[in-house]
Amino acid sequence: MKIGIIGGGTVATFLIKSINVDQKLPGSLVESVYLRKPEVADEWERTYGTRAFTDMEAFLSSGIDIVVEAATVEAVRDYAELVISKRKELVVISVGALVDPELYGRLNELCRQLGTKIYLPSGAIGGLDVIHSAMALGQLDEVALTTRKPAASLLGRQVEAEEVVFSGTATEAISKFPKNINVAIVLSLAGLGCDQTSVKIVADPEATKNTHCIEAVGSFGKMSIRLENDPMPDNPKTSYLAALSVLSTLKKQTERITIG
Known about the structure:
Elements: E1 2-6, H1 10-21, E2 29-34, H2 38-48, E3 51-53, H3 56-60, E4 66-69, H4 73-85, E5 89-92, H5 101-114, E6 118-119, H6 128-134, E7 140-150, H7 151-155, E8 163-169, H8 170-176, H9 182-190, E9 197-204, E10 210-218, E11 221-229, E12 231-232, E13 235-239, H10 240-252
Parallel strand pairs: 1-2, 1-4, 2-3, 4-5, 5-6, 7-9
Antiparallel strand pairs: 7-10, 8-9, 10-11, 12-13
C-alpha cells in the first residue's frame, strides 16, 4: 500500500518514522507528502527521502493508494473532494470539517458514486465500537463526554479549584472550543449527532494530562469508559493515542481479518 500524507506536522512525522523507518506496516510505504511551502518540502525530501509536492494534482498522481489528511480543517475543506474524485481512499484526522452538513453530504455522495471510502480514526478516545454498534438499530438513548484538561493548557492561566468552563451540546462546544474538542466530534458522528451529544469541559488545576470520560445508555445496556491520555514524546499538544489510532486505521487496510 502506497500512502500519501497531507501535512508535515507531528502526526505526519510519526507516520513516516513508524512506516518507512521502523517498518511497522510491512509492505506499505509513505510514498509522498503534500506541503504548502517549497522550503519545507525540500527539507522533508532531504530528511526522509520521501517525495514532497507543493502541487496537489502532482501529489495525487504520485502513485499513492490512500491519502492521510494530517493538516487542518481547512485542508479537508479544500482537498477532500478532489482526493475522492481521484478515487483515492482518504483518512481524515481534522474531523471538525465534517460538522458542516453540506460538506459531509457531498463527500458521502461522492464516495457512494465512486466506490471509495473515508476513514475517521478514533483519535484520543475509546468506546466508539460500542457507540457504533448500539446505533446499528438506532437504539442509543444518551451519550455524554466529560473532558478534563490541565487548567494552564485550557485557559492559559492557573485556577485554585476545578472549573467547569463549558456544559452543553457538542454543537455548542465545537463553536466555542474548536481546537480542543475533536473527540466530541468523532463521538457525535459515531452516535447521536452533535445536537444530541452532551459535553462538559473541566479545567483542573491538579490535572497533568487530558482525561476523557464517556458514558452511554441504550438498549444494549450502559457504558462508562475513562481514558487518561499521555502526549506524544516530542509534542505535548498531541495525544499519543490519537497518532496511534491513525497508524491502526492504516494497518486495518492491509489486514485480511479485522476486528470491529
